[in-house]
Amino acid sequence: MRTNIIRHETMMVSYDVVNGWTVVEVDGDVDAHTAPMIREAVIRLVDEGHRHFVLDLGFVTFMDSMGLGVIVAITKRIREREGSLRIASVSGRILKIFDLIGMRESYEIYPSTPEATQSVPAPGSLAHWPHRSSH
After folding, report:
1. Which end of the chain is more exposed for a tag (fewer CB within 10 A), N or C?
2. What is the pTM (predicted TM-score) of this model?
3. Per-residue pLDDT tens over the stretch 28-69
4. Cβ atoms < 10 Å from Cβ of 1
């Protein structure tokens, strides 16, 4: 069952648990104003015991450097707890930003959330982050 954790005028965040993964779906703009809210919401989930995340960006309409920074910040927190993070449903425009700053190689990026959640999580998959570990 999907649970809304943030409702804002330009962005909404919800999550669901699928096959051991906490799927966090972001809908709207991820910018200097909304990124801190997203960071706090995900950190709250980590503090509640969630360890393995899929960040679904399929409904993100805009992302700036603060949005990319929040991904790095939550990755660090998840890594501290020996969790894992996959990114799903990234638009071509946002994927290009990932490429430009070299983030694409640091993350497991999946075309869709069902593909990202197909296999169960493996603890410690971020052990070699920021460089992708070999499967």
Report:
1. N
2. 0.88
3. 999 999 999 999 999 999 999 999 999 999 999 899 889 999
4. 4
